[in-house]
């Protein structure tokens, strides 16, 4: 048994130390795996705000992840082909500059989350799940049938985008960038959780009627949280696209939504570090079991089933012997 | 655009809608009676497709394949219900979503393990392989017409089952008050298993029927599952009548959208971009329809309060 804060610190340190050690030993692939964990965990942290704090079971967060990915893909694609995105009424060119890409990814995924959230949050329960799923699939099919940016084949970006002062082509430097962003977002998300807004959001999850009675508007609070959650997923999508140097409709598919949700659940819903633990377990399973058997997802499925049926607090819940993340 | 072509597309839309109904009827019943959201419904559709293709290839008889799909999917449904689903009725939707998502992974990878990654092929039975002449000079494939007839027959059968039989009374009672019907001495666990198996059999039936016009492959159930969700959201969760009307609406909107939108855009823009914009918009049309229904009726066309 271990206290959750200690466990969190330990996990954070491991994620930092293992890639550094791998860098010393020249194990480049381990660094890439760790970077992947950071990026996917970031998407999980985004979803956790909607799912864990707000109780909104969204099966459509791949939409925001994919929009972030396409923001990167489209800007970098125009930059590498030297064709401006538009010339009239004013000139907009592509860019390989990460901060600009991130900004666009966050803005676009935030706008999408605003539109999807505004419609979906009119409903609740099972309707909400199905509707977020359906809107996600809408974007997926749109990406497949729209040929301008690769359609079903996706877009390949030949050189990783640039960040001032860093050489992002060096794996450990790109890892450091992703790790810092993840740490910053986890910190912000912990501040959000205990802020006035965060408490109101958790109140909408625990008891909607009481929240209304004290004069708050659940719809508005949920919508804001949904947008924040979508923006973080968008940023994660842009980073993930940069890591793989490839964007395709698969990023938008509902399997991606399911996987992001798996990260949160394997770790333990609503817990601050759950997405990180979940993403790490997922990547390690993929890496080790994927080497043993092509059908490793059977084991992932069985593990997920066991966690859902028998370990409601997720892996962190098992380690800390506390089922609930709150109260 | 000739009348015959238009009529053919219209029939294709109805056929697609009827197939969606077979999927969504089971989903909506399971949700209505047990309050369970089942993502693995598409896997049962896939099981039906694979069983039908395998048995038809082995015995050479499509009818035997269809029977195998029906019974096999129902059996898989019973097994899954008893092992996993049963533990989920009292859980929240999140647990149901995750556990059934886990089931999808297990079913898909398991099927890939047994049958390999390549699609199986299932031929339309000999008697139904030709076209049929309909009034107004319309030629339509007999097999697709058979799907429409079979689907409508299932719809009628379900209607009779739910309104006229003892099982139907229990299903309706289960929808309105679970505790009360259990208190009245109905074996609720058995009822749940039967309803789940019924939904599974319908999904397997749909998978087998469609397997002969599309290829039978891993993940074939997932696009259909999501369309079935759209159908249920439009029709109202728990309503079989809503599922029928929603399914026909979605089937017709999708088919006619793909057929008419490119032609519509071609009336005022050049052909290539009209096809691109038309087909991209057509692929989103049913979701726009769903959003439209939601704005005016958040509980769906025939949904009560959830």
Automatic annotation (TrEMBL), chain A:
Compartments it resides in: Cell membrane
Alphabetized Pfam families for the sequence: BPD_transp_2
Molecular functions (GO terms): branched-chain amino acid transmembrane transporter activity
Keyword list, A-Z: Cell membrane, Membrane, Transmembrane, Transmembrane helix
Topological relation to the membrane, as annotated: Multi-pass membrane protein
CDD domains in the cross-refs: TM_PBP1_LivM_like
Keyword Membrane attached: yes
GO CC, alphabetical: plasma membrane
Stretches that traverse the bilayer: 7-25, 31-50, 62-80, 100-119, 126-149, 169-188, 221-240, 260-283, 295-319
Protein name, as recorded: Branched-chain amino acid ABC transporter permease
InterPro entries from the UniProt entry: ABC_transp_permease, LivM-like
UniProtKB/TrEMBL annotation, chain B:
Chief location of this protein within or outside the cell: membrane
Annotated membrane topology: Multi-pass membrane protein
CC annotations in GO: plasma membrane
Record-level GO BP terms: amino acid transport
Keyword Transmembrane helix assigned: yes
Segments traversing the membrane: 16-37, 44-60, 66-85, 97-122, 142-162, 188-213, 225-252, 273-296
Keyword terms: Amino-acid transport, Cell membrane, Membrane, Transmembrane, Transmembrane helix, Transport
Classification via CDD domains: TM_PBP1_LivH_like
Protein known as: Branched-chain amino acid ABC transporter permease
Subcellular location: Cell membrane
